[in-house]
Design brief:
The structure holds 4 protein chains of 4 kinds. Chain A is of the alpha/beta class. Chain A has 15 helices and 8 strands. The chains are: A alpha/beta, B alpha+beta, C mainly alpha, D alpha/beta.
């Protein structure tokens, strides 16, 4: 993006260091692409979690240490003993050849964990793999992806290179696959996240070098035994690429903001509150599960039909506020021409509700 | 969402309290429901942590697993839970009646959990226990696999529209009241009930807001508040694990755990019983009993099956089982939707708004009208005209019925839309006896206030499916019959 | 007595308050406050424990969970590594130890172990018959993440090329099988350990009951044949570089990354 | 080399017949893009089998489809052969079939044993017992649910499954994920299930759409048949609309007619607004356009044959029933114009279609609105031109659509993706857009 925009964004963020995108936040671009507030805050690298707290609406998704422990120990387990369990799994799911067991550790470079060094090395090793075929498993490679003009570092759990000349992203998650089924929302989240990695890999190695089939590794049933399932992420890739190209529009969004707008976390809660209100949000109830700002936006959206759920808004004739809807329904509000149909529908609903409730 | 519930939500926002979307109760409530509030450990697939269970508000039993990662302790939990559930199941199988020449118990188990996730927990717990072996590797107490079958039975039954065998309280309340918040937020039992039945002097929205503070209202489970996990549960579990067996330290640790978990469960336990009272205040709809009979029959059949030593439910449906189940689910869904509307004007209201039904006044009756019938001879086909202000989007020749006159079908002959009213002309057939002149009362009278709907229960003809062992090639051929394997039993639960 | 009880109750109340307070602080994101409260909470909990100890009848003397270790830790690790015959991660070393000996190993102490060994070597090189050292990554000759080795092993054994982890896994499997077939009554723990290998070697064993050490060794060797030569040449080249380029300390504990240019492979 | 549609289509058809008749496969699947001669294939296959003395059963989905097929068959059937039309109880004899000499109509399969060809709806077939036919043809197989096929699969030994994968999937009133990922998931389409259980069955594709004009080839193929595509039988300029009367002034309606006449596509863009589904303005616009086509004396030329576009050659399509109700009222004076939902327009063909865009005036797009099959049906019924009416802002709506569909393990990803297909179609329509 152009420098002016970058400048505006830095100014908006203020003193605090920029919070970098990661696979999860990039994936979130597809979650509510219509929300200007989220787009701007993410582009500016504002710490939404802190911000939400400062304005008095803390997000409520803390993580239980039990879940974290479980996640880590499961990944450690499937990778233990030179990927012993993974090798067995991938021999089945990807048809790895018996000779394909080579492994390269990219989590650190000779004790050095700086992102630049790790990325350079990851690049060398991954591009090298296609020529020398030394390694099949690349542990925690560090990839980059251009997100709205910023370089974002991404770190998949594992990338597997197959002798048939394609790389496969391997995602290790600790939610269970029970009788070959898993929580659709969790799988969807894993899929879009993996798609981000696939995209980053493709930008590095070329589209035909990276499979659109990622391998999801989860605990089987109620055991710790891992099971691998291939997931086709073509749809996720379509959406993701579309939203990434749309990020260019961040410039127009930023231009639209009042000059001097600042979300510096050191500002008073009041100022932050006011400043936030200047940036338009697109609140829907399911934001609560997805976005740190949700409770702030929900409070703001109180009295709007959208806060009751998008299908409710639809049922209420797409009218903006609850007051309007009821006003039109009981006739105390005069319908503008473009509200005429909504009004008559709402009046009918009100009449019928009254007659039925009376019965 | 429907137009009615959406409108009611809007009203609720302004009024600060929930609005009715049903005038009658459409779920059955047993005199002694088994209320079950489970908690699970985060990050694990159905690792029970604790539960409060019982049939009486003042006598809950608290079960807990001091170290949920310990497999034996989990099965200990399952065993104690089994004792309670199986006793309850047994108590339901005491009195029988003979209906449609089969033995049907007069009672059936009814399990009430706080929310949809609770139903999911029951399903998983059933799945994780029903294949356990009582001998060989990893043996478990005999009642555990039995528990698994019953929990599985209940959760499968709960997939049927109108079944009350296993209810999520949030859904039970949600089908009778609309709140001023989103359906997503209604999944919080405390919040939902806060809108429907707020404590004195508190408005719905405030009650709902308070319900979101885990310190005031702990989550209704099965997942716990992360802060509780990290700050209280984890240290308590560690204390218990580190303490030597039978040491005073361990006893104390157990007490701490018990106090902490009781504190998380009790509020929801109270909510559950409050919710039950709220629901009991509504008069039950007529067909609630009929549907409960279906639940009882299903229970009786499965009870018999278990007694005869049938195998545990398969992991997944085979092709034929799946097709049959889908058909049954669809049949019960249609039946349920239609009957609910016939029995409850507020439910019917949804059909009136979409124009699939209409309510109005009879303004014209041609009672003795006769037309040539199929085999040449004349048949009685009265014409009536109903004047309505409802949208009434019905195509000509659509068949409709009146809730009050189930035996009789009307066919839309003409719809005449006038500025202030719509005149619907109907040709009636059936419900008039064979007499040339319909006996009085069999045809709607002038000025009668009447509702007609195009959505009414229709007789289903049951499709015969091939027996599983003759599954055709189009569906992968006959499946291997399910036989329990060692894997089932050895599948380590940790 | 009574007094003490009331004290305990008082403390109990306080503990509940503190717990609530901590959670409030956490949800509000007030980290410092939360930590302060936590500290006080733990203190109060200790006081409570003490108060109750006074109440409690003299605690039943409980038997220590495990008999104390018979050998010093480094000896035990050395034993495990010698059995495996290849560089191994702490997790595996612990598993091996617990499969054949009493007494548990604390992972934390294992990680510090390597540092102690390095310190001791630097202060008095070659003073001990062996040191527990690092395995070296073949390309950078830097310490390979999380792998322990024995200083007396040949450099070719201690350097890790791309294929080496699998090769070492198979080698260890073979040595473990042989060991098991030698000892009269391998316990369940030992068999469980072998199974963890067998389960991931093609053709090693259908299931736990059917598993025989001989078959496992045979299957492992079959796959080993496929990787061995490439791996050996790789390791030898790297070992040569190590001997030429590294000083004594580095040869045992690896070279720190010097410059990014060194990352070329 | 140049593409000879007729020859190509003939080649594929003979392949199909040979493949099926060879008896080497229990099943043969034929995917057919819109108007690629599906029913011609069905008739031809049936006739050739019957003529060869084989007995076969034909399965279609609706009574209307069954009666259409019966008529076509009866016309093509060699003398001496008889079609048995098996009807539901109380269905009576469809008057269309009453006069046909070589058609027997009966409620009982037992009374039709003498017939070489027996034809009925899938629903009816599910109740037939005992008899087994050596051959079966299943028409519109993608609109049939897998559990329906299960109920009647025992009736035949081998079957030809013909259908259009681009149209709407079958649906159910119940929502239940318990069968997700199973190859025999009863909720999926019969063909989807069939192929998952029998991955080796041959799948043929009819390569040529005889219905769609050349102007529709690129957009419809790329939006709805992304991995297979198809060609149109006619080339650029082979189809053309002309008007007897000239447009007076340059009203948007006439402008969009002109655009449609020359390019085969027209998009009348109403000012952006969030509306009720039954957006009165949009409904009026659709009605005006339809009426205008008739008032202007539209003539449709295909090759060198021309004919006037009469009311029965025009269809008006929408997504929701209430929209259709509103449109019918608005077009009450033109009873011969077909006005219906996408579901009921499946498999139909017209010269001109006028469509109310499913996303017009919507604030949020639901899965229903985005379903690829729905848009595919609406934009692929025409021989000449398709005019779409919609509010401005559909593109933005798509861009800001949150993608949150759950993903189920072992469930094949279905293409085209509705969201992507909508993007493609809108992208195309913008080039033919006229502001109202």
């Amino acid at each position: 993006m152009d420098n002016i925009t970058q400048e505006r964004l830095n100014q908006l963020r203020g003193a605090a260091g920029a919070k970098r995108h990661n696979a999860r936040t990039v994936a979130a671009l597809t979650g509510n692409p219509g929300c200007v507030r989220r787009a701007v805050l993410d582009a500016a690298g504002v710490d939404k979690d802190k911000l939400a707290r400062r304005v008095g609406f803390p997000a409520k998704f803390g993580q239980s240490q039990f879940a974290i422990t479980r996640g880590n120990s499961f990944e450690a387990q499937v990778k233990a003993n030179a990927f012993a369990e993974l090798i067995t799994l991938l021999r089945d799911t990807l048809g790895l050849q018996i000779g394909e067991v080579g492994q390269t550790d990219l989590e650190q470079v000779g004790g050095n964990t700086s992102q630049e060094i790790r990325h350079t090395r990851s690049r060398q090793k991954l591009t090298g793999a296609m020529t020398n075929g030394e390694s099949t498993f690349f542990d925690h490679p560090l990839l980059t992806l251009d997100v709205g003009g910023n370089t974002v570092y991404l770190e998949p759990d594992l990338v597997a290179f197959h002798h048939e000349g394609v790389f496969h992203v391997v995602e290790i998650k600790s939610f269970a696959v029970i009788d070959d089924q898993a929580d659709g929302a969790k799988v969807a989240a894993a899929a879009i996240q993996s798609a981000v990695y696939v995209l980053a890999l493709r930008r590095l190695l070329g589209d035909d070098k990276v499979s659109h089939e990622v391998v999801l590794v989860c605990p089987k049933d109620f055991s710790n035994k891992p099971v691998a399932t291939k997931i086709d992420v073509r749809k996720q890739l379509i959406v993701l690429e579309h939203q990434l190209t749309r990020l260019a529009r961040i410039e127009t969004l930023v231009d639209a903001l009042p000059p001097g707008l600042s979300l510096d976390l050191d500002n008073s809660a009041d100022d932050l509150f006011k400043a936030l209100s200047e940036i338009e949000a697109r609140y829907a109830p399911d934001c609560i599960a997805k976005c740190e700002m949700a409770f702030f936006c929900r409070n703001e959206a109180r009295g709007c039909t959208a806060a009751l759920g998008i299908s409710v808004r639809e049922e209420l004739g797409g009218v903006e506020t609850v007051a309007e809807a009821l006003g039109l329904a009981d006739g105390t509000l005069v319908a503008s021409d473009d509200q005429a149909e909504a009004a008559s529908m709402l009046r009918a609903t009100a009449d019928i509700y009254a007659s039925a409730a009376a019965a | 969402m429907t137009a009615i519930s959406s409108y009611a939500r809007a009203r609720a926002v302004v009024a600060g309290r929930a609005f009715s979307i049903a005038t009658r109760r459409h779920v059955h409530l047993s005199d002694t429901p088994l209320v079950f509030v489970p908690l699970a450990m985060a990050g694990e697939a159905s690792a029970p942590l604790a539960a409060m269970i019982g049939t009486q508000p003042d006598k809950p039993t608290l079960l807990l697993v001091p170290q949920p990662r310990n497999r034996d302790l989990r099965f200990g939990f399952a065993a104690s839970l089994a004792d309670i559930v199986l006793d309850y199941v047994h108590s339901c199988s005491q009195r029988v009646e003979i209906s449609a020449n089969e033995q049907v118990f007069l009672d059936a188990p009814q399990l009430l959990v706080p929310n949809a996730a609770g139903v999911g927990f029951v399903k998983l717990l059933g799945r994780s226990t029903r294949y356990r072996r009582t001998t060989g590797p990893y043996p478990v107490p005999p009642q555990v696999p039995l528990l698994g079958r019953w929990l599985t039975h209940l959760s499968e039954r709960s997939e049927f529209a109108g079944s009350s065998a296993l209810l999520a309280m949030t859904s039970a309340l949600g089908m009778h009241w609309a709140t001023g918040q989103s359906a997503l937020e209604d999944a919080n039992l405390a919040a939902l009930l806060g809108w429907i039945d707020p404590p004195d002097g508190v408005t719905g929205p405030d009650a709902a807001l308070a319900a979101e503070d885990p310190l005031i209202w702990p989550p209704a489970g099965p997942s716990t508040d992360p802060a509780f996990d990290n700050e209280i549960l984890a240290p308590a579990i560690r204390a218990w694990t580190d303490a030597a067996t039978d040491s005073p330290k361990r006893h104390r640790a157990l007490n701490t755990l018990e106090r902490a978990l009781r504190g998380q469960l009790e509020p929801t336990w109270q909510l559950m019983w409050r919710a039950i009272d709220v629901l009991r205040r509504l008069p039950a709809a007529d067909s609630v009993d009929t549907r409960w009979t279906t639940d009882r029959r299903d229970f009786s059949r499965y009870h018999q099956y278990v007694t005869d030593g049938g195998l545990p439910q398969a992991r997944r449906d085979g092709a034929v089982a799946a097709a049959r189940k889908l058909r049954n689910l669809e049949r019960e869904q249609d039946l349920y939707d239609a009957t609910r509307a016939l029995e409850d004007p507020l439910v019917m209201a949804n059909y009136r708004i979409t124009g699939a039904a209409f309510q109005g006044t009879v303004v014209q009756v041609d009672r003795d009208r006769r037309v040539p019938g199929g085999k040449g001879r004349a048949v009685t086909r009265p014409l009536i005209v109903v004047s309505t202000t409802d949208p009434a989007h019905l195509a000509i020749s659509t068949k409709v019925q009146a809730p009050t006159r189930s035996g009789q079908t009307g066919t839309i002959v003409q719809i005449d839309r006038q500025p202030d009213t719509t005149l619907v002309t109907l040709e009636l057939s059936g419900g008039m006896t064979a007499a040339k002149v319909p006996p009085p009362g069999t045809v709607p009278e002038m000025d009668e206030h009447i509702t007609y709907t195009s959505a009414y229960p229709e007789s289903f003809r049951k499709v015969e499916l091939p027996p599983p062992d003759q599954t055709p090639w189009t569906h992968g051929g006959p499946p291997k019959p399910y036989t329990p394997t060692n894997d089932d039993a050895q599948e380590v639960w940790e | 007595m009574l007094v003490v009880t009331s004290v305990a109750e008082e403390l109990e109340r306080r503990i509940d308050e503190l717990r609530a307070a901590v959670r409030k602080a956490v949800t509000a994101g007030e980290r410092e406050r939360a930590n302060a409260l936590r500290a006080e909470l733990r203190k109060t909990e200790r006081q409570w424990e003490d108060a109750l100890d006074e109440l409690a009848e003299p605690p039943v003397t409980t038997v220590p969970r495990q008999a104390g270790p018979l050998l010093p830790l480094r000896e035990q690790v050395h034993q495990a590594l010698t059995l495996l015959g290849a560089p191994a991660a702490p997790k595996l070393i612990i598993a091996v130890h617990e499969a054949f000996h009493v007494g548990e190993m604390v992972p934390a102490r294992l990680t510090s172990l390597r540092r102690d060994e390095e310190r001791s070597f630097r202060s008095a090189p070659h003073a001990r018959p062996y040191y527990l050292c690092s395995a070296l990554s073949a390309d950078l000759l830097a310490p390979a993440r999380g792998l322990l080795a024995v200083s007396t092993w040949a450099m070719t054994t201690r350097v890790i090329g791309p294929l080496s982890p699998r090769v070492d896994f198979l080698t260890s499997a073979i040595r473990l099988s042989e060991y098991l077939s030698r000892i009269p009554e391998p316990g369940p723990a030992a068999r469980r350990l072998l199974w963890r290998f067998a389960a991931n070697i093609p053709g090693a064993a259908a299931n736990t009951d059917a598993m025989t050490p001989a078959a496992v060794a045979e299957a492992a060797d079959a796959e080993l044949q496929i990787h061995q030569d490439t791996d050996r040449s790789h390791r030898e080249a790297a070992a040569k570089r190590a001997r030429e380029q590294l000083d004594d300390v580095e040869q045992l504990f690896g070279s720190r990354l010097r410059s990014i240019s060194a990352t070329g492979s | 080399m140049t593409f000879d549609p007729a020859a190509e289509a003939e080649r594929v058809t003979t392949d199909i017949l040979a493949d099926f008749a060879s008896g080497r496969h229990l099943g043969v699947v034929v995917d057919s893009p819109p108007g690629a001669g599906k029913s011609t294939l069905v008739v031809r296959t049936a006739v050739s089998l019957a003529a060869a003395g084989e007995r076969l059963m034909i399965v279609a989905q609706t009574n209307e489809q069954v009666d259409d097929l019966t008529c076509n068959l009866s016309a093509k059937l060699p003398a001496g052969l008889v079609i048995g039309r098996l009807t539901g109880s109380g269905h009576g004899v469809p008057q269309r079939l009453a006069g046909l000499p070589n058609v027997l109509v009966d409620e009982k399969a037992g009374n039709l044993v003498s017939c070489e060809i027996t034809i009925a709806t899938a629903a009816k077939w599910a109740f037939v017992k005992d008899t087994v036919w050596p051959w079966a043809i299943v028409d519109e197989a993608y609109q049939m649910r897998s559990d329906t096929l299960l109920a009647l699969a025992a009736r035949f030994e081998r079957a030809l499954f013909v259908g259009d994968p681009g149209q709407l999937d079958p649906f159910s009133v119940v929502q239940n994920d318990r069968w997700r990922g199973l190859t025999w998931d009863p909720m999926q389409s019969a063909v989807a299930g069939l192929l998952r259980s029998n991955p080796t069955l041959p799948v043929h594709r009819l390569p040529v759409s005889w219905r769609l004009p050349a102007s529709a080839e690129q957009v419809v193929a790329s939006a709805f048949y992304p991995y297979t595509g198809f060609r149109t039988g006619t080339g650029p300029g082979d189809r053309e609309l002309s008007f007897d009367t000239r447009a007076f002034g340059r009203t948007p309606v006439d402008a969009v007619l002109a655009e449609a006449a020359t390019s085969g596509w027209g998009f009348l863009e109403l000012p952006a607004r969030h509306t009720m589904r039954t957006d009165a303005e949009a409904v009026a616009a659709v009605a005006d356009i339809t009426r205008r086509f008739l008032d202007r004396g539209t003539v449709a030329r295909s090759g060198d044959s021309s004919r006037p576009v009469t009311p029965d050659r025009i269809a008006v399509g929408a997504a929701h029933r209430d929209q259709v109700a509103a449109l019918r009222t608005a077009l009450a004076d033109l009873p011969d114009v077909t006005v219906d939902t996408a579901n009921r327009l499946q498999g139909r063909e017209y010269d001109v279609t006028v469509v109310l865009h499913p996303l017009s005036g919507r604030r949020d797009a639901t899965a229903f609105h985005l379903e690829a099959g729905r848009l595919c049906v609406l934009t692929s019924r025409h021989r000449q031109a398709c005019v779409v009416v919609g509010r401005a802002g559909i593109r933005e709506l798509l861009d800001t659509h949150p993608s949150a569909e759950p993903v189920h393990l072992h469930e094949p990803v279905k293409f085209p993706d509705g969201w992507a297909a909508n993007q493609t179609v809108m992208g195309h329509l913008e080039a033919h857009s006229i502001a109202a």
